[in-house]
């Protein structure tokens, strides 16, 4: 059975990995002794941008800053809904200086930026479904930030507790397919949060642990095309069975920093 899905053009903000490296350890994926191939990382990232453009999406980029090796993960900079920019306060001191650069970009682009008082890592943990915000907590973004996000964005925020350190951001364990459905890895969540997801999305596409560890859930969907790690083989098949079109983009060098496709992609709505 395969329904025909419709894509909607998106606007993305990205940051070139010119200074990308693994220099510290703030999640279990990062090992500074394991070298990053900088040229390969640049090629993989450029392929992602080319692929977005080839599918009709607009891609803006901001200038990377030396000394901020994780700045390529633009998703963590904010959560933007209906032109309201809910900025970030990073958990790790190493990443805190990124915010000022992102905020400057948003201001120059004509947006006011709300600066949260509690730790909040943008779309890494605050995921807009089209009707409300699913909000991860447990490792980075705090419950207090969920409250701030709801107050500022004026949309319901539904808290979900993450329990596995390999899936430390919500966007490593769940992504939105379209206005009606999501895809996720249940075991990344506490039993209560799993139940919430089951009630909200009885038809969700579920991923295996293997595909979650292969970064299959750090994907971007435009409603039809799913830009996804090719290593998540079973998930690609499951998505195709549901009428989505998997578009493989390999960001293996970024997995070494604990990031993938979605982490490198901030959506501006
Ligand atoms: N090294 C970065 C960190 O630990 C990776 C961020 C990945 N971003 C994401 N949206 N999951 O903060």
TrEMBL record:
A GO molecular function held by the record: dimethylargininase activity
Active site per database record: 169, 263
Pfam families noted in UniProt: DDAH_eukar
Organism annotation: Streptomyces misionensis
Keywords of the record: Hydrolase
InterPro entries given in the database record: DDAH-like
Lineage, broadest ranks: Bacteria, Bacillati, Actinomycetota, Actinomycetes, Kitasatosporales
Protein name: N-Dimethylarginine dimethylaminohydrolase
SUPFAM superfamilies from the UniProt entry: Pentein
GO biological process, one term: arginine metabolic process
């Amino acid at each position: 059975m395969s329904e025909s899905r419709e894509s909607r053009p998106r606007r993305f903000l990205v940051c070139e990995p010119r200074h990308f490296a693994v220099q510290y350890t703030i999640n279990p994926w990062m090992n500074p002794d394991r070298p990053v191939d900088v040229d390969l990382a640049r090629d993989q990232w450029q392929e992602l941008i080319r692929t977005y453009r080839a599918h009709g999406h607009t891609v803006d980029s901001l200038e990377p800053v030396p000394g901020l090796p994780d700045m390529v993960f633009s998703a963590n900079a904010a959560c933007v809904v209906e032109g309201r920019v809910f900025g970030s306060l990073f958990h790790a001191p190493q990443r805190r200086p990124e915010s000022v650069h992102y905020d400057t970009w948003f201001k120059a682009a004509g947006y006011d930026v709300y600066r949260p008082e509690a730790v909040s890592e943008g779309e890494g943990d605050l995921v807009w479904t089209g009707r409300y915000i699913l909000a991860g907590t447990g490792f980075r973004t705090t419950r207090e930030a969920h409250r701030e996000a709801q107050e500022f964005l004026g949309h319901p925020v539904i808290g979900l507790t993450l329990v596995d350190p390999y899936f430390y951001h919500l966007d490593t364990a769940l992504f939105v397919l379209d206005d009606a459905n999501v895809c996720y890895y249940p075991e990344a969540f506490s039993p209560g949060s799993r139940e919430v997801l089951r009630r909200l999305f009885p038809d969700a596409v579920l991923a295996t642990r293997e595909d979650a560890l292969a970064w299959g859930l750090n994907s971007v969907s435009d409603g039809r095309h799913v830009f996804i790690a090719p290593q998540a083989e079973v998930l690609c098949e499951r998505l195709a069975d549901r009428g989505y079109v998997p578009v493989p983009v390999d960001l293996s060098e970024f997995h070494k920093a604990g990031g993938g496709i979605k982490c490198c992609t901030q959506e501006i709505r």
